[in-house]
Each structure stands twice: as structure tokens, then as C-alpha cells.
Design a protein that fits this description.
The chain is of the alpha+beta class. It contains 2 helices and 2 strands. It is elongated and about 60 Å long.
Length: about 80
């Protein structure tokens, strides 16, 4: 059984919940992230969550850690 991609779908959220999520996404810099998705009796169930992006200093720390791990692997292999 093939689902019709153009048909209208019901959203099981209230208008207040939707506007709350939309406001956070627009103003506070949050992102909507799909957490769980499955098909149940012909209906697609999707669980979503709000996620906040990393700060610049967090990104720099991750890049430094990744570079140090690469350097350690090069040394262990005997390169450089």
C-alpha cells in the first residue's frame, strides 16, 4: 500500500504548542530535531525535540580534540 504524498495530514499538537515551538525556533536559536519516527497502522508517528546549537568555544574545543587524536594516530603509525 503506497501512501499519497500530496494528501493533507493531521498534526496532533495544539495551536499553542505549535506557536510555542515556532517562537523558540525563531527567537532563541533552537532547532527542531526528529527523535523517533515509525509507522503505526498506516500513520507516521514522529517525535520531535528542541535542540540548541553549540557555542563557538565548544566547537573550537572539539576541533582541538579531534586534531590531537589524529596527531596521536599519526605518531602511533610512525608517520611524520
Amino acid at each position: 500500500m503506497e501512501a499519497d504524498p500530496k494528501r493533507s495530514r493531521k498534526l496532533l499538537m495544539t495551536r499553542k504548542e505549535i506557536s510555542n515551538l515556532a517562537g523558540k525556533v525563531q527567537r532563541a536559536g533552537f532547532t527542531l530535531v526528529p527523535l523517533n519516527m515509525h509507522l503505526l497502522r498506516g500513520k507516521m508517528k514522529l517525535q520531535i525535540g528542541l535542540a540548541k546549537g553549540k557555542k563557538k568555544h565548544d566547537k573550537r574545543r572539539d576541533i582541538q580534540e579531534r586534531e590531537s587524536k589524529r596527531e596521536q594516530q599519526r605518531i602511533m603509525r610512525g608517520e611524520k
